[in-house]
Write a structure and sequence with these properties.
The protein has 164 residues and is an alpha+beta fold. The protein has helices spanning 41-53, 59-62, 75-88, 111-121, 140-143, 159-163, and strands at residues 3-13, 20-22, 25-28, 91-101, 129-134, 147-158. It has six helices and six strands.
């Protein structure tokens, strides 16, 4: 079976207009991020991981922050576009593993909704998407409450192997 792995990372400064979305799910109505799009740092990291796995470039190539069309755009819409590009190139998501790194934002109460949202947009099988969270225990810009970071790993498999 042909498969590939891609890694994605994104970070945003906290302090923009609420709400804060992760994976298309509102996780805070009191905190926001500074961003061109809706600032869904989780979606952005997954897009880069998916694009990397499929060797399709990166998020900035297709959805550049300097493009006025990106102002306030729904990042899960962009993830859906990236998933469609991957599929058109002959790949499907086999597994996604995401880690949110934040000091004050709590993922646990929203984990199931985030997993369900990602599973749907990625057209992935149930049980193949994992979302975890950790903090930096007060270290760095994340620990100081100035930002949020997400790292993601996506494994894709060739559609030709599935159809065979």
């Amino acid at each position: 079976m042909t498969s590939r792995v891609g890694w994605g990372f994104d970070a945003h400064r906290l302090g923009g207009e609420p709400p804060l979305k992760l994976g298309g799910v509102v996780v805070s109505y009191s905190v926001g991020v500074s961003a061109t799009s809706d600032g869904d740092v989780l979606a952005h990291a997954v897009i880069d991981a998916l694009m990397g796995a499929c060797v399709l470039g990166d998020i900035g190539e297709y959805f550049p922050s300097h493009d006025p069309a990106m102002d306030g755009v729904d990042s899960m819409y962009l993830l859906g576009k990236a998933q469609a590009m991957a599929e058109a190139d002959g790949w499907r998501v086999a597994h996604a593993d995401v880690t949110v790194i934040a000091e004050q934002v709590r993922v646990a109460p929203h984990r199931e909704a985030i997993v369900a949202s990602l599973t749907e947009v990625l057209a992935a099988d149930l049980g193949t998407v994992s979302v975890k969270a950790t903090s930096t225990d007060g270290l760095g810009f994340v620990g100081a409450g100035q930002g949020i970071v997400v790292a993601a790993v996506v494994t894709v498999e060739a559609l030709s192997n599935i159809d065979a």
